[in-house]
Amino acid sequence: MSSFEFKTGKEFAVAMDECDPLKGFRERFFFPQAAGGRCVYLCGHSLGLQPRSARACIERELKDWADLGVEAHFRANNPWMPYHRLLTEQTAELVGAKPIEVVVMNSLTVNLHLMMASFYRPTRDRHKIVMERGAFPSDQYAVQSQIRFHGYDPATSLIELTPRPGESCLREEEIESLIEQTEGIALIMLGGVNYATGQAFDLERITRAGHKKGCVVGFDLAHAAGNLKLKLHEWNPDFAVWCSYKYLNGGPGCTAGCFVHERHARAWDLPRFAGWWGHDEQSRFEMGPKFQPIPGAEGWQLSNPSIVSLAVLRASMDLFREARMDRLRAKSELLTGYIEFLLSQTNTKRFSIITPHEKDRRGAQLSIRIEENGKALCEQLSREGIIGDWREPDTFRVAPVPLYNSFHDVFQFASRFIAAIG
Predict the structure, then answer these.
(1) Is the predicted pLDDT of residue 2 greater than 50, yes or no?
(2) pLDDT of amino acid 1
(3) Domain that holds residue 180
(4) I need a labelling partner for 391 at 20 to 30 A (CA). Which of 8, 263, 372, 398 fits?
(5) Which of residues 293, 320, 347 is at a domain's end?
(6) d(C-alpha 123, C-alpha 108), whole Å
């Protein structure tokens, strides 16, 4: 952020908000309340805020259900049978994909298992999976269980990327070197952004290195979708999965997303776990015994999705399309850099920022390592209306989400954090 000159006073934050071209989106979300007004909500990396338009979207579907019953599948204002396709173009734009490459379905870990069922095909000579040692636990559980399911042992089949001693983040050149020098890798499965450190990985570089070695490459984009500018089709991974309740504001447990590259759209020889919603829709209701998958990512669907859940996601995705990811990303870089700048004004040694400093190696998140009593500090700030989240053993995570956070939010957080930590 060296090209932009931040300033310490409140007046700077107020001036930045006044000239922010995205400032109007803030009022299109509900904020939790605290004594004296709305909270400073910096927890969009865990659960995004509710769009004000979500209620109307849900009520529209509830009315169609009340008025039409089962006929709403075909006669609703937005018929339910193809309802998920109302999100296809927006989702493709969001992650830099073609419409045939994306589908909104299931939950993240279910989608991860479905992808590994098709793309992790271990053999005696090629059975290893590469992932971060600090990956989100659900990813670790899923990967380990897949390895065991195929009769292998995670002790020998799981390769965990580990930062150097004394460092918190992985070095890109060392990821690439490990891929180049390790034999027997079947699958590279990394998070787009590490949930704990906030490190964003160079997905194009990792994909290129993996494919050069003949590996399948997949990503968990839970902390990247709606956060970073993604170009999945161009970057060329085999698959990717993500949830929709963090930066995408779809609500708790919202239907997740999945990407399968176009080159696999008609790979009928790939094994898959099948369900009737992935069957060719022209003959789906003939209820035949033979599964005929839809070409593209839709062919991995299992069951009809929750319309109520998709309705909320539509409300948020409409805002993303209006705001545009390029503008959101530009504001995100400023907000995150502003937090870092303000925190750097104190000389205390009680905390350090473990998220990379470079803007292209992070998204809208800073992970702050606190030397002692960090959880108590996090709880104190929460009582004061400053909402981040705590991750054991020593990390306080905050995310200035550009769709609804302001520069004044950042100023308030930094001021109160510095005062609390002493």
Answers:
(1) no
(2) 40
(3) 58-320
(4) 8
(5) 320
(6) 26
Distance set, CA 30 to CA 25, 87, 259 (Å)? 11, 22, 30
CA-to-CA separations, 61 to 206, 283, 312, in angstroms, rounded: 42, 26, 10
- Please give the Cα distance from 367 to 355 (Å, whole number): 6
Total of domains in the chain: 2
Confidence of residue 3 (pLDDT cuts 50, 70, 90): low
Q: What residues contact residue 77 under an 8 Å CB cut-off, 6+ apart?
A: 60, 64
Residue in the structure block whose two tokens are 């299109």: 28
Same domain? For 269 and 386 the reply is: no
Residues 99/86, Cβ–Cβ less than 8 Å: no
CB atoms within 10 A of CB 70: 9
- Name the amino acid, one letter, at 101: E
Q: What is the pLDDT of residue 173?
A: 97
Q: Which of 34-43, 62-71, 171-180, 234-243 has the lowest mean pLDDT?
A: 34-43
Same-domain check for residues 95 and 140: yes
Cβ-contact 319, 90 below 8 angstroms: no
DSSP annotation of 115 reads H
Instruction: For residue 370, give the H/E element and its range.
Output: strand 366-370
Give dist(CA 165, CA 162) in Å, integer.
Answer: 9
Q: Please give the model's pTM, rounded to 2 decimal places.
A: 0.96
* Higher pLDDT, residue 195 or 347: 195
DSSP secondary structure of 122-172: --SSS-EEEEETT--HHHHHHHHHHHHHTT--HHHHEEEE-PPTT-SS--H
